User: Which sequence fits this backbone?
């Protein structure tokens, strides 16, 4: 089932990038898709982490919210950099994430890193060590909401 | 219509360039490797994002837009991993994070 999904996605990707739709090239595209799916199956990477189809729908609900957060954080960091006094107070904080799977934790840790002002330094089980540019960045409200949302994504549709 | 597209494209690309320049200024002003990563993160996300978005309006139609969106998605998926790897390497290399004295009252 996942292999089939991978095949459909890969062929869609091929179609989007190729732009040539003659029978010869289309059959070559199908051939390479089948070959890649076969190799991926043999490599044993077609699993819930390699091809996370189950979170597909919810991820695209989460994504716009993440983009909004990235935008807000960018403006915030830009203001810090441009203010003459450079008002930074870097600190390391520890968070406990509520995700159950490694995939969910990876999404959460990468989301934290993507929003400027916070960087995930290390992940150890449920514990995340985060470097933050100011005290305000880790007052917990945004991170808690992000944590909740990623856990919701992880549960899948 | 072309005028409108051009204007939107210009605004977006200028915004992207602004964040790129601010990120570069941040790289120079920040005191240590970790805080510099925060500034570098701006160029990855907003800088590149806005420029790619602006390029979508530069004509070329659907195939070009698909490619630009794919570039942007791959950038969003890979850049935090690079940032994380750098921070982790610095941490295990024993680089002490720069600290300021806490502000009054906290």
Assistant:
């Amino acid at each position: 089932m996942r292999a089939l999904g991978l095949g459909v996605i890969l062929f869609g990707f091929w179609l989007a990038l190729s732009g040539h739709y003659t029978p010869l090239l289309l059959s070559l595209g199908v051939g390479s898709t089948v070959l890649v799916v076969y190799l991926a199956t043999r490599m044993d990477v077609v699993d819930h982490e390699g091809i996370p189809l189950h979170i597909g729908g919810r991820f695209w609900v989460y994504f716009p919210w993440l983009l909004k957060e990235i935008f807000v954080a960018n403006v915030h960091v830009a203001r810090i950099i441009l203010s003459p006094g450079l008002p930074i107070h870097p600190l390391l904080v520890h968070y406990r994430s509520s995700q159950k799977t490694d995939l969910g934790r990876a999404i959460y840790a990468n989301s934290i890193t993507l929003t400027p002002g916070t960087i995930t330094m290390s992940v150890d089980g449920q514990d995340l060590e985060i470097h933050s540019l100011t005290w305000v960045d880790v007052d917990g409200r945004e991170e808690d909401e992000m944590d909740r949302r990623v856990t919701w994504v992880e549960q899948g549709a | 219509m072309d005028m409108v597209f051009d204007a939107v494209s210009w605004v977006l690309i200028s915004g992207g360039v602004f964040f790129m320049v601010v990120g570069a200024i941040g790289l120079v002003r920040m005191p240590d490797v970790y805080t510099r990563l925060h500034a570098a993160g701006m160029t990855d996300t907003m800088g590149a994002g806005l420029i790619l978005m602006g390029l979508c309006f530069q004509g070329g139609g659907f195939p070009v837009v698909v490619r630009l969106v794919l570039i942007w998605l791959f950038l969003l998926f890979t850049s935090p991993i690079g940032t994380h790897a750098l921070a982790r390497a610095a941490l295990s290399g024993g680089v002490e994070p720069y600290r300021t004295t806490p502000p009054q009252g906290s």
Q: What stands out?
A: The helical segments of chain B are 2-29, 33-56, 61-92. The interface with chain A takes residues 19, 22-23, 25-26, 29-32, 34-35, 37-39, 41-42, 45-46, 49, 63, 66-67, 70, 76-77, 79-81, 83-84, 87-88, 91, 97-100, 102-103, 106 of chain B (CB under 8 Å).
